[in-house]
Amino acid sequence: MTLNSKSPAIHALPIALDLASAQASAGRIEGYASAFGGQPDANGRLIAAGAFANTIADHRAAGSMPAMLWAHDMAHPIGRWLHLAEDAYGLKAVGQLNLRTARGQEAYQHIRAGDALGLSIGWKARDGGVRHDPGRGATVFSDVDLIEISAVTIPANKRAKIQQIASIASQRELEQVLRAHGLPRSAAVMVAARGWPALASEDPSAAARAALAERVRCATEAVKRLSGGGG
To answer: Could you tell me the pTM of the whole model?
Structure first.
């Protein structure tokens, strides 16, 4: 991606995507948008720990988030990022694909199929936030302004890898699993279509609510097992 000629250069760092849950909350994705240290990426760049602290704080203060894009295309949004945080490994990102749009659905299907298992960040280096490390032959970024995080096909960071992907193949399959584990058909249809909050519209007796809650618990565990979510 590019900005106008007066804007600082924006760099892209592809990192393989870690999808922790893509269907229990349909389209939810989780992964590392950037990894700290290690070997330089394919473009000779390293991101230092703490490089995202200021930009995360700025986004939080503004009530904003970096854009969620497909392959750095500003005209191709696919959802939104919900949470960003640094840990010892890198920048952890949690987001939601917009499955009500054709682009969000297409991205979801590519990710589920393993066609696009990378994340890539678009950023601008802040003043004083870049240096050259001749010993490692790398450009090190220590303070960046994060603009967007994209789903991409080819990651450049060799340390990045898929950890898990959790998905139910279809709404119909999810409905069948819920019914098989004790949910009434009407409840299973609502949950498969709109998630567990759909049951909030129901107003059964206390005993019925307790029975339904136990069925929901059992069905939830079944969905986790089916989708690879584990415990």
So the answer is: 0.67
> Distance between CA atoms of 14 and 201, rounded to whole angstroms?
43
Query: CA 100, CA 208: separation in Å to the nearest integer?
Result: 33
Structural tokens at position 229: 């979510």
What angle do helix axes 206-227 and 185-194 make, rounded to 10 degrees?
50
Closest CA to 195 of 209, 174, 179, 180: 174
Closest CA to 216 of 190, 228, 229: 190
- Could you give the CA distance from residue 214 to residue 231 in angstroms, rounded to a whole number? 17
CA 103 to chain centre: 15
Which of 5-19, 136-150, 175-189 is modeled with the greatest confidence? 136-150
pLDDT of 210 higher than 70: no
